[in-house]
Design a protein that fits this description.
The structure holds 2 protein chains of 2 kinds. By secondary structure, chain A is α+β, with helices and mostly antiparallel strands. Chain A has 8 helices and 4 strands; from the N terminus they run H-H-E-E-E-E-H-H-H-H-H-H. In chain A, strands 1-2-3-4 form a 4-stranded antiparallel β-sheet. In chain A, helix 4 crosses helix 5, helix 6 crosses helix 7 and helix 7 packs across helix 8. The longest helix of chain B has 28 residues. Chain B has a domain of 91 residues: Herpes Virus-1. By secondary structure, chain B is mainly alpha-helical. In chain B, 14% of the residues are buried. Chain B contains 6 helices and 3 strands; from the N terminus they run H-H-H-H-E-E-E-H-H. Chain B has a 3-stranded antiparallel β-sheet with strand order 1-2-3. The two termini of chain B are 21 Å apart. Classes of the chains: A alpha+beta, B mainly alpha. At the A-B interface, helix 1 of A face helix 5 of B. Chain B: One of its GO terms (cellular component) is cytoplasm. Chain B: This is E3 ubiquitin-protein ligase RNF181. Chain B: InterPro entries: Znf_RING (IPR001841), Znf_RING/FYVE/PHD (IPR013083). Chain B: It is an enzyme of class 2 (transferase).
Chain lengths: 199, 144
Amino acid sequence: MANIAAQRIRREFKEVIKSEEVAKCAIKVELLNDSYTELKGEITGPPDTAYEGGTFVLEIKVPETYPFNPPKVRFITKIWHPNISSVTGAICLDILKDQWAAAMTLRTVLLSLQALLSAAEPDDPQDAVVAKQFKENIEMFQMTARHWTNVYAGGPHVNKECDDKIKRLVDMGVEEHQARVALSSYNWDIERATEQLFS
Amino acid sequence: MADYFQEMGWQPLSEGQAPNHLLHFARLFRDYNIFDESLTQSLAPPASKSVVENLPSITINGQGVKCPVCLKEHSEGETVKKMPCNHTFHAECILPWLAKTNSCPLCRFELATDDEDYEAFRKEKIRAKAREADIEILHNSMFS
């Protein structure tokens, strides 16, 4: 890896570790290899959102041309959000694309992602199904996002109704995550979800 | 009262000059907000070569200022490049960036570019803002 990228990540690492957000346990970064090319990030769900209480793990890949090009970031923890793919974890955020600036750091990227969790942009979606639900039925969206946070990110809000519906589909032989995706996509209408799964 | 051409920031056609249909289309699209999105979605072009060459170099005196690109602290007596927005960078840190795009990595202050289309677009944007402000002033002078 080019020297400038590795050196910079090393410096940033110290910056993140010393930052007050780490002290408050809001963000975290970990090295995955010695060459500073792959890192693991972690952000907590912002308070007063459906993601509250959850911990979201991110994959961070640092290109050789960093910081002139943005790091490649995606969610490893499954999440229900208009700007994040519920399938791949790919993120639609301008600063990770054309609005990147060389003075941005891992810390500002993680904080921006946290801000994205509290302020979705449904008009610039990554996941069209989620964005549609967000625009047409915000309460349904909130409930679904909270349920996903509970199941995949360790959030505190158990939703018995969702769990029961998933269990009914699992009893019919559907894989659990697939059942959750189908129900989430059809506003938890079990008949329509079943129809889609078995068609 | 400014005349039509002055107000729009346009030039009347000179003798024998053909109208620029592309530009008219661009304005039409702009007026209907069709292109805003597609243009702001792509990275702005590199800074103009002559502007980059003429960026002043200054000598650091004092300590505690970091180069925002490599995050190394500038040392006393070091020579660095200074942007018009007063942010300072190592030459080897800012030059590759300005070869990619025209803005300050820290505050997004935009340098001029060599890209005529982009410059025209930027001028149009500034003019549109000025026009909005003019209308606002006119409105306030009539109704307050």
